[in-house]
Please model this.
Amino acid sequence: DVTGLATLRTAYRDRLAAARRAAARGKRVIGLVGHCVPVELVWAAGCFAVQLTPSGHGPTPAADGFMEEQLDRDTRSLFDRFLRGEFDFCAGVVIAATSDANRHLFHYVREVARQGVRDTLPPLHAFDMMFGDLPALRHYGLDRMRELARFLRLIGGHDIEPRLDAVFAMAHRRRTALQRLDRLRRARLVSGVDAIHAIGAGSFLEPESCQAELEAALTTFEGAAPLSGARTIIVPAVPLHDDRLHRLVEDAGVVVIAEDDTWGARPAADELAGPPTMDSLFAAYHAAAAAPRAPAAQREAWLRRRLREGGIDLVVVYIPPDDQDFGWSYPALRDLLDGHGLRHIAIRENADDPAAAATIARQLAAKIGMPA
Model:
Protein backbone atom coordinates (compact mmCIF):
# COMPACT_ATOMS: atom_id res chain seq x y z
CA ASP A 1 0.00 0.00 0.00
CA VAL A 2 1.13 3.59 -0.61
CA THR A 3 2.91 5.02 2.42
CA GLY A 4 0.55 7.35 4.26
CA LEU A 5 -2.45 6.49 2.12
CA ALA A 6 -3.63 3.67 4.38
CA THR A 7 -4.18 6.09 7.25
CA LEU A 8 -5.89 8.61 4.98
CA ARG A 9 -8.13 5.92 3.50
CA THR A 10 -9.10 4.66 6.96
CA ALA A 11 -10.05 8.19 8.04
CA TYR A 12 -12.05 8.69 4.83
CA ARG A 13 -14.07 5.55 5.51
CA ASP A 14 -14.44 5.73 9.31
CA ARG A 15 -15.15 9.43 9.38
CA LEU A 16 -15.99 10.09 13.00
CA ALA A 17 -13.34 7.84 14.57
CA ALA A 18 -10.57 10.42 14.97
CA ALA A 19 -13.02 13.06 16.21
CA ARG A 20 -14.47 10.65 18.79
CA ARG A 21 -10.96 9.83 20.01
CA ALA A 22 -10.20 13.53 20.31
CA ALA A 23 -13.41 14.12 22.27
CA ALA A 24 -12.53 11.24 24.60
CA ARG A 25 -9.21 13.00 25.31
CA GLY A 26 -11.09 16.17 26.26
CA LYS A 27 -10.66 18.02 22.95
CA ARG A 28 -13.63 20.16 21.93
CA VAL A 29 -14.99 18.90 18.62
CA ILE A 30 -16.88 21.11 16.16
CA GLY A 31 -18.98 19.35 13.53
CA LEU A 32 -19.24 21.13 10.18
CA VAL A 33 -21.86 20.79 7.47
CA GLY A 34 -20.78 22.35 4.18
CA HIS A 35 -17.35 23.47 3.01
CA CYS A 36 -18.20 27.18 3.12
CA VAL A 37 -17.48 27.19 6.87
CA PRO A 38 -13.95 28.56 7.49
CA VAL A 39 -12.22 25.60 9.13
CA GLU A 40 -9.30 27.86 10.06
CA LEU A 41 -11.51 29.57 12.65
CA VAL A 42 -12.21 26.20 14.25
CA TRP A 43 -8.49 25.44 14.43
CA ALA A 44 -7.76 28.90 15.86
CA ALA A 45 -10.35 28.33 18.59
CA GLY A 46 -8.38 25.26 19.66
CA CYS A 47 -11.03 22.81 18.48
CA PHE A 48 -11.05 19.66 16.33
CA ALA A 49 -12.97 20.20 13.08
CA VAL A 50 -14.84 17.27 11.49
CA GLN A 51 -17.16 17.32 8.51
CA LEU A 52 -20.55 15.69 9.15
CA THR A 53 -21.69 13.79 6.08
CA PRO A 54 -24.60 11.57 5.01
CA SER A 55 -24.15 7.87 5.73
CA GLY A 56 -25.19 6.40 2.42
CA HIS A 57 -28.79 6.47 1.33
CA GLY A 58 -30.47 3.68 3.19
CA PRO A 59 -33.60 3.89 5.35
CA THR A 60 -34.00 6.97 7.57
CA PRO A 61 -36.67 5.89 10.08
CA ALA A 62 -35.82 8.54 12.70
CA ALA A 63 -36.16 11.36 10.15
CA ASP A 64 -39.24 10.06 8.37
CA GLY A 65 -41.63 11.13 11.10
CA PHE A 66 -40.57 14.77 10.76
CA MET A 67 -39.46 15.46 7.20
CA GLU A 68 -41.43 15.90 4.02
CA GLU A 69 -40.79 13.18 1.46
CA GLN A 70 -39.56 15.56 -1.25
CA LEU A 71 -36.46 16.66 0.65
CA ASP A 72 -33.22 15.33 -0.81
CA ARG A 73 -31.61 12.17 0.53
CA ASP A 74 -28.45 13.84 1.85
CA THR A 75 -30.46 16.20 4.05
CA ARG A 76 -32.67 13.37 5.23
CA SER A 77 -29.67 11.18 6.07
CA LEU A 78 -27.92 13.94 8.04
CA PHE A 79 -31.08 14.75 9.98
CA ASP A 80 -31.54 11.05 10.76
CA ARG A 81 -27.99 10.91 12.14
CA PHE A 82 -28.68 13.92 14.36
CA LEU A 83 -31.83 12.30 15.71
CA ARG A 84 -30.05 9.00 16.40
CA GLY A 85 -27.43 10.80 18.47
CA GLU A 86 -24.45 10.10 16.21
CA PHE A 87 -23.19 13.67 16.58
CA ASP A 88 -23.86 14.11 20.30
CA PHE A 89 -20.12 13.95 21.07
CA CYS A 90 -19.65 17.30 19.28
CA ALA A 91 -19.31 20.39 21.48
CA GLY A 92 -20.99 22.38 18.73
CA VAL A 93 -22.15 22.11 15.11
CA VAL A 94 -21.85 24.78 12.42
CA ILE A 95 -24.05 24.48 9.33
CA ALA A 96 -23.26 26.55 6.23
CA ALA A 97 -26.58 28.17 5.38
CA THR A 98 -25.49 28.72 1.79
CA SER A 99 -27.90 26.24 0.21
CA ASP A 100 -31.58 25.48 0.61
CA ALA A 101 -30.76 21.93 1.73
CA ASN A 102 -28.53 23.11 4.57
CA ARG A 103 -31.06 25.73 5.64
CA HIS A 104 -33.71 23.02 5.85
CA LEU A 105 -31.39 20.86 7.94
CA PHE A 106 -30.63 23.70 10.35
CA HIS A 107 -34.29 24.52 10.94
CA TYR A 108 -35.33 20.88 11.36
CA VAL A 109 -32.63 20.26 13.97
CA ARG A 110 -33.53 23.47 15.78
CA GLU A 111 -37.21 22.51 15.79
CA VAL A 112 -36.70 19.04 17.28
CA ALA A 113 -34.51 20.67 19.93
CA ARG A 114 -37.30 23.18 20.66
CA GLN A 115 -39.83 20.36 20.96
CA GLY A 116 -37.56 18.47 23.35
CA VAL A 117 -37.47 15.43 21.08
CA ARG A 118 -33.74 15.15 21.90
CA ASP A 119 -32.18 16.74 24.96
CA THR A 120 -28.52 16.04 24.09
CA LEU A 121 -28.24 17.79 20.74
CA PRO A 122 -25.07 19.90 20.49
CA PRO A 123 -25.31 23.71 20.25
CA LEU A 124 -26.07 24.70 16.67
CA HIS A 125 -24.87 27.70 14.67
CA ALA A 126 -25.82 28.76 11.12
CA PHE A 127 -23.04 30.43 9.16
CA ASP A 128 -24.37 32.46 6.26
CA MET A 129 -22.66 34.13 3.34
CA MET A 130 -24.15 36.28 0.59
CA PHE A 131 -22.39 36.62 -2.74
CA GLY A 132 -21.68 39.62 -4.92
CA ASP A 133 -19.43 42.67 -4.98
CA LEU A 134 -21.66 45.17 -3.19
CA PRO A 135 -20.04 46.65 -0.06
CA ALA A 136 -23.16 45.84 1.96
CA LEU A 137 -22.77 42.12 1.14
CA ARG A 138 -19.13 42.19 2.19
CA HIS A 139 -20.05 43.85 5.51
CA TYR A 140 -22.77 41.27 6.03
CA GLY A 141 -20.36 38.40 5.42
CA LEU A 142 -17.68 39.79 7.71
CA ASP A 143 -20.27 40.28 10.46
CA ARG A 144 -21.34 36.65 10.11
CA MET A 145 -17.71 35.51 10.27
CA ARG A 146 -17.11 37.50 13.45
CA GLU A 147 -20.33 36.07 14.87
CA LEU A 148 -19.04 32.57 14.09
CA ALA A 149 -15.71 33.40 15.75
CA ARG A 150 -17.54 34.40 18.94
CA PHE A 151 -19.49 31.11 18.92
CA LEU A 152 -16.28 29.11 18.50
CA ARG A 153 -14.36 31.08 21.12
CA LEU A 154 -17.02 30.31 23.72
CA ILE A 155 -16.60 26.61 22.99
CA GLY A 156 -12.83 26.42 22.46
CA GLY A 157 -11.80 28.98 25.03
CA HIS A 158 -9.22 30.74 22.83
CA ASP A 159 -9.17 34.21 21.31
CA ILE A 160 -9.06 33.56 17.60
CA GLU A 161 -7.32 36.51 15.94
CA PRO A 162 -3.97 36.13 17.81
CA ARG A 163 -3.81 32.51 16.58
CA LEU A 164 -4.48 33.22 12.90
CA ASP A 165 -0.77 33.36 12.02
CA ALA A 166 -0.32 29.70 12.91
CA VAL A 167 -3.50 28.45 11.24
CA PHE A 168 -2.82 30.42 8.05
CA ALA A 169 0.60 28.73 7.90
CA MET A 170 -1.05 25.32 8.37
CA ALA A 171 -3.64 26.09 5.70
CA HIS A 172 -0.91 27.18 3.30
CA ARG A 173 1.00 23.90 3.82
CA ARG A 174 -2.16 21.93 3.10
CA ARG A 175 -2.93 23.87 -0.07
CA THR A 176 0.67 23.44 -1.25
CA ALA A 177 0.33 19.68 -0.78
CA LEU A 178 -2.99 19.64 -2.63
CA GLN A 179 -1.44 21.55 -5.52
CA ARG A 180 1.35 18.97 -5.62
CA LEU A 181 -1.29 16.22 -5.72
CA ASP A 182 -3.06 18.05 -8.54
CA ARG A 183 0.13 18.04 -10.63
CA LEU A 184 0.57 14.32 -10.03
CA ARG A 185 -3.03 13.68 -11.08
CA ARG A 186 -2.55 15.61 -14.32
CA ALA A 187 0.37 13.27 -15.07
CA ARG A 188 -1.87 10.24 -14.29
CA LEU A 189 0.36 9.12 -11.44
CA VAL A 190 -2.58 8.86 -9.01
CA SER A 191 -5.97 7.22 -9.50
CA GLY A 192 -9.06 9.31 -8.85
CA VAL A 193 -10.14 6.99 -6.03
CA ASP A 194 -6.80 7.32 -4.24
CA ALA A 195 -6.84 11.08 -4.79
CA ILE A 196 -10.20 11.72 -3.20
CA HIS A 197 -9.29 9.52 -0.24
CA ALA A 198 -6.17 11.65 0.23
CA ILE A 199 -8.09 14.92 -0.16
CA GLY A 200 -11.19 13.95 1.78
CA ALA A 201 -9.31 12.61 4.82
CA GLY A 202 -8.41 16.20 5.63
CA SER A 203 -12.02 16.74 6.65
CA PHE A 204 -11.81 14.05 9.35
CA LEU A 205 -8.29 14.28 10.83
CA GLU A 206 -6.35 16.83 12.83
CA PRO A 207 -4.45 19.01 10.35
CA GLU A 208 -0.92 18.24 11.55
CA SER A 209 -1.28 14.46 11.44
CA CYS A 210 -3.15 14.59 8.13
CA GLN A 211 -0.42 16.75 6.62
CA ALA A 212 2.30 14.27 7.53
CA GLU A 213 0.41 11.32 6.04
CA LEU A 214 -0.50 13.29 2.90
CA GLU A 215 3.10 14.32 2.25
CA ALA A 216 4.27 10.73 2.74
CA ALA A 217 1.69 9.54 0.21
CA LEU A 218 2.71 12.23 -2.29
CA THR A 219 6.36 11.17 -2.13
CA THR A 220 5.35 7.60 -2.97
CA PHE A 221 3.03 8.70 -5.79
CA GLU A 222 5.88 10.63 -7.40
CA GLY A 223 7.72 7.37 -8.03
CA ALA A 224 4.71 5.58 -9.55
CA ALA A 225 4.34 4.51 -13.17
CA PRO A 226 1.75 6.50 -15.17
CA LEU A 227 -1.71 4.98 -15.38
CA SER A 228 -3.35 4.31 -18.73
CA GLY A 229 -6.78 5.52 -19.77
CA ALA A 230 -8.53 8.66 -20.93
CA ARG A 231 -7.90 11.70 -18.70
CA THR A 232 -11.32 12.37 -17.23
CA ILE A 233 -12.84 15.07 -15.05
CA ILE A 234 -16.12 14.80 -13.18
CA VAL A 235 -18.59 17.70 -12.98
CA PRO A 236 -21.18 16.83 -10.31
CA ALA A 237 -24.50 18.48 -9.56
CA VAL A 238 -24.28 17.44 -5.89
CA PRO A 239 -21.34 17.14 -3.46
CA LEU A 240 -19.35 13.92 -3.93
CA HIS A 241 -19.43 12.70 -0.33
CA ASP A 242 -18.13 9.22 -1.25
CA ASP A 243 -16.04 7.40 -3.86
CA ARG A 244 -18.77 5.36 -5.57
CA LEU A 245 -18.93 7.44 -8.74
CA HIS A 246 -15.14 7.47 -9.07
CA ARG A 247 -15.05 3.70 -8.78
CA LEU A 248 -17.71 3.25 -11.46
CA VAL A 249 -16.00 5.69 -13.81
CA GLU A 250 -12.50 4.29 -13.35
CA ASP A 251 -13.75 0.71 -13.66
CA ALA A 252 -14.63 1.69 -17.23
CA GLY A 253 -10.91 2.11 -17.98
CA VAL A 254 -10.27 5.85 -17.55
CA VAL A 255 -8.34 7.93 -15.00
CA VAL A 256 -10.18 10.67 -13.10
CA ILE A 257 -7.68 13.54 -12.90
CA ALA A 258 -9.98 16.14 -11.32
CA GLU A 259 -13.50 16.87 -10.13
CA ASP A 260 -15.30 20.23 -10.00
CA ASP A 261 -16.16 19.74 -6.35
CA THR A 262 -15.06 20.91 -2.91
CA TRP A 263 -14.55 17.23 -2.03
CA GLY A 264 -12.16 16.97 -4.96
CA ALA A 265 -9.80 19.16 -6.97
CA ARG A 266 -11.25 22.61 -6.30
CA PRO A 267 -9.51 23.25 -2.93
CA ALA A 268 -6.10 23.04 -4.59
CA ALA A 269 -6.92 26.28 -6.43
CA ASP A 270 -7.98 28.19 -3.31
CA GLU A 271 -5.37 30.41 -1.68
CA LEU A 272 -5.40 32.44 1.54
CA ALA A 273 -3.89 35.61 0.11
CA GLY A 274 -2.87 38.59 2.19
CA PRO A 275 -2.07 38.94 5.89
CA PRO A 276 -3.50 36.47 8.46
CA THR A 277 -6.62 38.45 9.32
CA MET A 278 -10.36 37.88 9.44
CA ASP A 279 -10.70 40.10 6.36
CA SER A 280 -8.30 37.92 4.34
CA LEU A 281 -10.02 34.75 5.49
CA PHE A 282 -13.43 36.07 4.51
CA ALA A 283 -12.16 37.22 1.10
CA ALA A 284 -10.72 33.78 0.35
CA TYR A 285 -13.90 31.90 1.24
CA HIS A 286 -16.15 34.44 -0.44
CA ALA A 287 -14.19 34.13 -3.69
CA ALA A 288 -13.89 30.33 -3.65
CA ALA A 289 -17.34 29.23 -2.48
CA ALA A 290 -19.19 27.12 -5.02
CA ALA A 291 -22.55 27.38 -3.26
CA PRO A 292 -25.72 27.22 -5.36
CA ARG A 293 -26.49 30.86 -4.51
CA ALA A 294 -23.12 32.12 -5.79
CA PRO A 295 -23.14 33.89 -9.19
CA ALA A 296 -22.81 31.56 -12.16
CA ALA A 297 -19.53 33.17 -13.23
CA GLN A 298 -18.02 32.37 -9.84
CA ARG A 299 -19.33 28.80 -9.76
CA GLU A 300 -18.06 28.08 -13.27
CA ALA A 301 -14.65 29.79 -13.02
CA TRP A 302 -12.75 26.68 -11.94
CA LEU A 303 -14.18 24.50 -14.72
CA ARG A 304 -13.64 27.09 -17.44
CA ARG A 305 -10.02 27.49 -16.37
CA ARG A 306 -9.41 23.72 -16.46
CA LEU A 307 -10.99 23.47 -19.91
CA ARG A 308 -8.72 26.25 -21.21
CA GLU A 309 -5.66 24.50 -19.77
CA GLY A 310 -6.45 21.34 -21.75
CA GLY A 311 -5.15 17.87 -20.97
CA ILE A 312 -8.70 16.46 -20.76
CA ASP A 313 -10.05 13.63 -22.90
CA LEU A 314 -13.49 13.05 -21.36
CA VAL A 315 -15.93 14.89 -19.08
CA VAL A 316 -18.47 13.02 -16.94
CA VAL A 317 -21.39 15.19 -15.82
CA TYR A 318 -23.24 13.71 -12.86
CA ILE A 319 -26.87 14.83 -12.44
CA PRO A 320 -28.64 12.38 -10.09
CA PRO A 321 -32.40 12.55 -9.48
CA ASP A 322 -31.94 14.55 -6.24
CA ASP A 323 -30.54 17.53 -8.16
CA GLN A 324 -32.82 20.56 -7.94
CA ASP A 325 -30.99 23.29 -9.85
CA PHE A 326 -27.88 22.09 -11.74
CA GLY A 327 -30.01 20.58 -14.49
CA TRP A 328 -31.08 24.05 -15.55
CA SER A 329 -27.43 24.88 -16.28
CA TYR A 330 -26.65 21.66 -18.13
CA PRO A 331 -27.59 22.82 -21.67
CA ALA A 332 -25.12 25.72 -21.43
CA LEU A 333 -22.49 23.38 -19.99
CA ARG A 334 -23.08 20.91 -22.83
CA ASP A 335 -22.56 23.70 -25.36
CA LEU A 336 -19.38 24.77 -23.57
CA LEU A 337 -17.95 21.24 -23.71
CA ASP A 338 -18.92 20.91 -27.38
CA GLY A 339 -17.13 24.20 -28.04
CA HIS A 340 -13.95 22.71 -26.61
CA GLY A 341 -14.39 19.59 -28.73
CA LEU A 342 -14.63 17.35 -25.65
CA ARG A 343 -16.36 14.01 -25.40
CA HIS A 344 -18.80 14.09 -22.52
CA ILE A 345 -21.51 12.00 -20.95
CA ALA A 346 -24.34 12.91 -18.58
CA ILE A 347 -25.08 10.31 -15.91
CA ARG A 348 -28.54 10.70 -14.41
CA GLU A 349 -28.66 7.60 -12.23
CA ASN A 350 -27.72 7.46 -8.55
CA ALA A 351 -24.15 6.18 -8.33
CA ASP A 352 -24.85 4.69 -4.91
CA ASP A 353 -27.77 2.60 -6.17
CA PRO A 354 -26.59 -0.97 -6.88
CA ALA A 355 -29.47 -1.42 -9.32
CA ALA A 356 -28.19 1.53 -11.37
CA ALA A 357 -24.53 0.49 -11.41
CA ALA A 358 -24.90 -1.75 -14.47
CA THR A 359 -26.74 0.99 -16.39
CA ILE A 360 -24.01 3.52 -15.59
CA ALA A 361 -21.31 1.03 -16.59
CA ARG A 362 -22.98 0.47 -19.98
CA GLN A 363 -23.29 4.23 -20.58
CA LEU A 364 -19.63 4.75 -19.78
CA ALA A 365 -18.50 1.82 -21.92
CA ALA A 366 -20.46 3.13 -24.89
CA LYS A 367 -18.97 6.60 -24.58
CA ILE A 368 -15.42 5.39 -24.01
CA GLY A 369 -15.67 2.90 -26.85
CA MET A 370 -15.17 -0.25 -24.81
CA PRO A 371 -17.38 -3.36 -24.94
CA ALA A 372 -20.08 -3.36 -22.29
